TrEMBL record:
Source species: Chitinophaga tropicalis
InterPro entries, A to Z: STAS_dom (IPR002645), STAS_dom_sf (IPR036513)
Region forming the signal peptide: none
Annotated ranges, domain STAS: 1-77
Cited Gene3D superfamilies: STAS domain
Protein name: STAS domain-containing protein
SUPFAM superfamilies to which the protein is assigned, alphabetical: SpoIIaa-like
Amino acid sequence: MQPQIPELNANLSARFTTDVSNLPDLDGRNLILDMALVEKADEEGLRAILTVYHQQYDSGMSCALTGLNSTLTNQIKAADETVYNLAPTMLEAIDLVMMEDFERELLNDEE
């Protein structure tokens, strides 16, 4: 998914979270957020990104963020040090979520 907004702020953060959470066919699927068009985010915008990220993991799926500029990357790292899937390119983001899928499969096979 690629948000089509230059700034994710308090006015847009609730809608962003809702729109992503209500994506058709998201249930049971991994999510890659391509943030290339988002130039900046305020505190509420960062919270929205982190909420979506953690919702995916809470549901047993993966999430990766790609296309982040250096400012957003640093803001996300500072806001939550548990966000590991920050990928510079879409291909790397795909690799990250595929590797996590593979890891989950291996762990399930061991049980």
